[in-house]
Fold each of these.
Amino acid sequence: MNLPVSEVKAAPSATARTTFAALWRPALVQAFVKLDPRQLKRAPVMLVVELTAIFTTLLCLLPSDVPTGVSVQIAVWLWFTVLFANFAEALAEGRGKARADSLKAGSQGLNARRRMASGEFEVVPASDLRKGDVVRVDAGEMIPGDGEVIEGIAAVNEAAITGESAPVIRESGGDRSAVTGNTRLVSDWLLVQITSNPGESTLDRMIALVEGAKRQKTPNEVALDILLIGLTLIFLVVVVTLQPFAHFAGGSIPMVFLVALLVTLIPTTIGGLLSAIGIAGMDRLVRLNVIARSGRAVEAAGDVHVLLLDKTGTITFGNRRCSAVHAAPGITARELGEGALLASLADDTAEGKSIVDYLRQLHDFTPPDAAHLVPVAFSAETRLSGVDFGAQRYRKGAVDSVLAFVGMQRLDLPAALAREVDRIAQSGGTPLLVCVDKRLLGVIHLKDVVKPGIRERFAELRKLGIRTVMVTGDNPLTAAAIAAEAGVDDVLAEATPEKKLARIRQEQNDGRLVAMCGDGANDAPALAQADVGMAMNDGTQAAREAANMVDLDSDPTKLLDVVQVGKELLVTRGALTTFSIANDVAKYFAILPALFAAIYPQLGVLNLMQLASPQSAIVSAIVFNALIIVVLIPLALRGVRVQAASAAHLLRRNLLIYGLGGLLVPFVGIKLIDLALNALHLV
């Protein structure tokens, strides 16, 4: 029974770019909204700055030894510091929210055709669907939620989610049965069993991820928050003790100066940019069309030591094709050709079809009627496929499997055929033996093509200290040849789910973080065990549930980009933390001599920057403290580019650039601001 289903237009491409010009106005509004202390409690350092700004504003209304104009300037720049820290966070959130809004538009007003117990269908809002419900989707309609195809085959346009306009085939059974909500059928029909409740779908997770306010802090961010809070408390104690110390020496320090000192000494730079760095890192991941279930997975990607990658589809194109056939001694080329053709007629894989195409070009065969053939499907246990034709059994498959079928050992292989098998394997090809009953006919040479540029990418990962492991079901010789051509560091050949799981546990027991990608149900245990498990969106539901990341483009090589984003996130945070702490040194030389100039004139020798007056020194430091956040916003959003180098080299580079820069830039910046303030007679 077909009922009309109302729906909205498909959402714009999720890869639509957002520009600064479109984002700065709403981000500026949000900067003021985020002044709410309940929101700033997530950024404790900036909460302290806001409280000091409020306190300084009140001090401007009270009599003081400090000119009112100077106090007002300090208060204004403190508010400026908080607002621009909020602006950086809002700008980072805005880049994702623009995408989230387009995704939300695609799901509003969507209805679904749900199957009732009677077998009839009823139209209900898509938001009413629950896990386990079965819906029917016809050509032109939107799939109302994440699910598994239980009946039918159809082409699906996933552009609303992935941005790719080319439709993909989804069908029941196998590893291509998962469908994503808010995608559109372009042909045929499907019966889909919903696999998520409202708020739990891929679309919902993507919207929640890109809306930065809902993003959970990662362990690294929490640890950095603890460090920043600790430093803030230490400097608070230091500042509080300065006034009693000044009284003991027979002097006094204006309260507004003490407030300024506190703000400039606490790590406001990293405190103001920390949230923006994290949100921008997650945004870069979303722009790769990868959904992370947690921020921890992204950070773990940055610390990965070992990368497990499937050979087929990741390292190679996966389209192995028949390139040659070699007959066994005593077998004619025609006998081998007929046997290999018969053994491949029922094989619907790309490899099987390539064998049939290759042999039909060589020989003029007329295959028997399909009604007289009994197909034998490939199975993981036998690793054989073929047909039974009358009393004869034609088979092709892995060398050891075919030998077992005919009752032979490796040593029993004819020498010429054994040499050909070894040559194919050593060249990176896959040898398939062909037999009829107990008689070997020859070997088929399948070639797998390594993707261009993959060797260079592995070399970059190696320089970053990441070891790559190729996972394949091929025999060790074939696997070794492909591994040598691709440039991977290690190989796991003849891999089974148990072998993958054991390898990951072994690496983790040795103290290493492991990442892997997969799409099949047999990958689920390993994906769940890995520190970073990335499932393909077109894979099985079991794989997607086991992984902590889902790649909407179903591109296994994306895992390399995820590792890069994770490293950029960690390095950016570390670089700006180094800069923030290092630039406190210059502020000491700017403010401390100014505070105690009247009490201890000898401290004037520490006025290395030759600042004009105590008031000028204080205001210059406060202005620099605010402006440096503005200057660093683009770096926080873009991230520090990670070069292919060892961890020690990266540490030295960060210390040299951001540590030394954090020491020198404030000296120059504060002096220039001092000159400008005095030239304009603002102090």
Amino acid sequence: MKKENKRKRVYELERIGNARTVQLYADGFESLTRKEKIFAYYMAKAAIAGRPVAIDQTNRYAIQIMHLCEELLRNPKGIPAKTLKAIGEYTKLFWINNGMYDHNTARKFVPACAPAKFEKALRIIAEREKDSRDAKERRVQTFREVRRAIFDPKYMAVVTDKTPGHDFIAQSANNFYEGLTTAEVAGWARKGNEKNPLNSKVIKKNGRMVELVWRAGSGSIPEGLYARQLTDVISNLEKAKGFASGKHQAKTLDLLIRFFRTGKLSDWEKFNISWVKDQSNVDFILGFIEVYMDPRGQKAKFEAVIHFTNKEQTKLMRKLAANAQYFENRAPWKDEFKKKNVKAPIANVVNVIVETGDAGPVSAIGINLPNEQYIRQLYGSKSVLLHNVVAAYKASEPKGLLEEFCFDQAEVKRAKKYGQIADDLHTGMHEVLGHASGKVSDKLKGDPADHLPGYYSTLEEARADLVALWNVFDPKLNKLKMVDSDDVAKEMYDSYVRNVLLQLRRIPTGNQLEEDHMKNRQMVVNYILRNSGSIEVVRRRGKTYFHITDYRKMRDTVGQLLAEVMRIKAEGDLPAARSLVDTYGLKINTSWRDEVIKRIKNLNVSSYTGFVMPDLSPIYDKKGNIADIKLEYPLDLTKQMLEYSKGAA
């Protein structure tokens, strides 16, 4: 491991295609108690143990592909340099994305070498290691089984396909369903056959549809899918429990362990109700959580975030949480959709130690959980702003973006002065006020996500963004001393609108968006562009700019759209959801996209970032007990991922 020199802290490490890797730093870890450090260590091991689940969920061939690629990288001797470089770059992108699909486009990427070169590299290893004839054939046979999945961009082309007119399930490449159509799954689920919508794979066996529940098994409950990986997760959670901050956190871990053993959603709900009340300094997000990858918005990908509170930075989030009822009362939607007794969410600014699965290496900057609507309404929620992730993004971002895409120097000046404040405030309000706000109609049966398949995630992200945009002009923020000028609100609006143009760089081919956050942002801005005179599109010297001409008028339109999005969610109005998202959020302006890519070519801008996490290592005393935990920064994605992958299956 390389030792870090704080005076010459390295952030960006390398570029791979449209992605880059950045080292994440966890300042403050050294100030944790011994007990907290050891708890974090075992929780990090649990997070890493569950990582193969997320990779397998991405595609049914993904684990085999990863093993083949990693075998080549571990045994490079004799492999032609050009072939090794192509395989290395492909594998790094695979690690960053937890599979062979681009984070932004949802489309497959392929190696920059021919299949025959890949197969030859495998044969070189086999010869050098003196494999038996059977072993050689098994290695080559494995490659031939996954060859098309690796190299054919048209086969299993999109991890989650929500294109109108397509069969969302049959044409999605993820591993939540196999050999089924949307109509088959919908009909089967309507009859009450789906007992584990959050944590199961659905297949057809002997002509009948069957759920393969994700669970380790316990007593009379048989092992399910991912039993081995979940058993490893449980083993580390059991060890972590001995270093929990108190009885409540230990009980919370017990409930999570029980869920992983039984797979029962009632156990998952009990865990979440306990977890949402836990205010421990070292905390975690771990389990089957986000449903973005499922076209139905039901099945969740494994993810884990292990973090500790950044006490100095937490004041912002706590102020918002304490005033949640104030902002709820002033929401622009109907009173029937407003919470009357808002349970202030637990709100923290945190430093991440490890993120895996759906949470990393590509990381969000803020999270609000749990997702279950009734738990939010009855028990509240937790919001976290990932401070060191935001800091790493900022420290490694390229120069010149503002000057290139701001409409004028006044916008550049405002962005430089208030950009960080506006970004933090937007994330805080998105998570604390946005996701935690509102209530569904008393007439709606079940969770809104059940009624809005293919559209719920986009709309919920839009709703949270709109809550932030709506509230940023509220004078209450000034009274709370969170802003000292309307320029903060103006910068938030400028940045949000500007980002819709900038995000087009992430879609180098094709004419539509797949990722829910990108789709939501475009939907919001396109709606305002077409339904309000508050934004103008300006062409100047061959370049396109978005210019907000009337911030108050834009806020009025934000309020109108927010009220409608809340109504759609509250009532489960699928036709309205489909019309709104498909009209404003789906298709991109390809001429703008081509222009943006040309403009940023010389700015050294990547499409997305994969973080290299800190490494934790135990230090033992003479009796063999853990005396301390050493935190190091590897500055090397390949070393870290090969270490993570030991024992993956």
Amino acid sequence: MKEAIKKNKKYIIIGIVIIILLLIGIAFAYLTTTLQGDKEYLVRAGTLDLVLDEGNELTLEKQIPISDNEGMNLNGFSFSLVNNGKIDTDYTIYLDDMELSEGESRIPDSSIRYSLTKNDETFMTRNMTTMGSNPNRRVDFGTIAPDETINYTLKIWIDYDATTEEASGKVFKGKLRVVATQPVGEPVADVLLADSSNNINTDDPEQTFITGENPNNYIWYSGKLWRAVSVNNEAKTVKLVTQWNISAVTYNESGNTAFEGSYMEEWLNDATVDGFLGNLRDYERFIVTDAKWNATMMSDISKPSESTVVEDPVGLLNIYEYQTSYRGTNYSNGYLNNELYWWTLTPYSTSAVWSVGNYGNANSSNPINSYGVRPSINLKSDVKIVSGTGTEDDPYRLMGDNDEDLLDAKLNTRYSGEYIKFGTGENNLYRIISHETRGLTKITSAEPLKENDSFKTILFGDSVNYSSSNIIGDFLNGEYLTSGFYMNSEQLNMIEDNTIWYLGTINNGSNYKLAKYSDITMREVAISTNAKVGLLRYGELMASQINIAPLNTSYFSLTPTIWSVSGNGYINIHSLSVPNGIKPSLNLKSNVVITSGTGTKEDPFEIELSN
């Protein structure tokens, strides 16, 4: 097993030799040289005068990998963008690789952490892979007004968990590049409100609602298809909700229906790889992180008072917002009826929460039920639409999320929900789940496996614990891989040979974290098994994700006591003696790269193994 540098004393003893290379690669040659003559501008507008001002040098205070807390205490590198021109300017700042000297090896992006401060706002620490991969490694983007100055501080350090193989004796060298253009696109609110097909409802003095059966309000963001629900009349922020269920979890324990402190609130705002927020692309740049969510208890669907307001980046629609969306039409025909079961934000009583059924009807439900989750966010007022018509097949695309020229970009830099052309025949579409294992990309089939246009079913086995030797595990690690029916030999070679699959037990009313951890403090993981192919666990992204409504099959999850995702999007306990559908999950290797596509359902990524 590889050991981290921090645990290997002999590497600490010779750390000065290693760090000389790191300091040269990351600090002086990287930023000082860049800002004293090698900075690159690509200016495409006539009256721009955009300046990148250099600041202090970036220094690394530790000679070994350090924690995020230590990294955040580094001085960092400060620089500014100044617009001396006469027009607003859209800009993107890239961090490009510089050529290494003979004998040098590049430290992988997966072993580097960074933090960016923009003016007075500090973004959360992230792995550098979240910037993208060279030459599309994006530090930031936005619009700068005439006479405006935007100040940045960039901090970079070696990941605390970097291994000797990944980091020892290796370097990172890069340079900043600024691409500036005349402004393109229009604010999301302006585009939505100007479209007469959106059946705008202005009865509410605080929000302007989009209503009706099929308005042009589809938006693609962070690998997911969303619907625009309303525009805040004052702030011009735009409330979105996912078109489809992203997962399914218990709302809360029995007898506790408050959104604040609930399992639901925790899952939605979990910034780790295990929750929704942690897998949402550059969320500080796109969404309102201190959004207000009206979680007031309501026994009817009239507009609630604001007696219970919760502040979070992510929430759910409340029952009033749902019913307002279908005003003027029957709820079964409203655009938010996706024919699946899903939670709203609103407590009905101290023992029940409002949910929506598969006919679009509103119900009061026990909070221990594991219904589907349709996360809701508020786009910032300055987010722009740059393409698309707002239809399902041509959704609006957002500035900063409409990547182009992804040739040779690593798949492990992409986002949960994006589509991949993988597999063969009728099983040739997969989706990214997450990057749970460093450098790897966890994926799942977009639908349960099919044979001759019918969903394949199989018994789970004689035990509730998944393994490569029980019935379903034997199929997934045998016939599924080797028959040639589900994938070809080239795709087989892309799959990581060994993945850990967590087998934590979930009971009715349990916290979703228990599917992976032995307790909700997340100090220790649950029992696990190793296999090449597994299944999605309870509460994992894309578990309950369904692109059509409803499916005419259900499918197994990984989690004891054998939870099954129904065709209507909720999760319940399944008998070992009854066959069920199969939605495989697997990890793709770190050297899988994109050869074409944009990651949407209509234009999925095509991929291959790089050398």
